[in-house]
Amino acid sequence: MTIADVKRILEADVLIGGERMEEPVDTACGSDLMSDVLAFVKDKTVLITGLINPHVVRTSEMLDITCIVFSRGKLPSEEILEEAEECGITVLSTKMTTYTACGELYVHGLPGTKKRAGAEGA
Predict the structure, then answer these.
(1) Per-residue three-class SS string for the chain
(2) Does domain 3-107 have CATH number 3.40.1390.20?
(3) What is the pLDDT of residues 89-108, one digit of tens each?
(4) What is the value of pTM for the model shown?
(5) Which of 21, 70, 102, 122 could pair covalently with 115 via S-S, beta carbons 3.0-4.6 A apart?
(6) What does the domain layout of the chain look like in residue ranges?
(7) Distance (Å, rounded) from C-alpha 60 to C-alpha 73?
(8) Strand partners, 30
């Protein structure tokens, strides 16, 4: 699946990174707790969250997250968008809830991360 597929499935708006729409994504994660994201996420992941603060971008950069999707129609500040652009992270916004967005991606074939990052066999 690509970021363009994610955009289409979630009926999302592109806020930053329109030139990266063909980048592949392997998994998805829905969370407002960045500690959970740190524990479970791998690279080439779509992060779906309703949390709008700079920690989302910083966490995503550390984990090589490909795309952040802000749920419930939330729009981040220009500061957050600029930071995401500097990190090469695509940012989308969907009107769907986090739960619905995760479900839509799952039924369209994008799995979640099943094991802790760094865990044996992960």
Answers:
(1) CEHHHHHHHHCCEEEECHHHCCCECCEEEECCCHHHHHHHCCCCEEEEECCCCHHHHHHHHHCCCCEEEECCCCCCCHHHHHHHHHHCCEEEECCCCHHHHHHHHHHCCCCECCCCCCCCCC
(2) yes
(3) 999 999 999 999 999 999 99
(4) 0.90
(5) 122
(6) 3-107
(7) 20
(8) 48
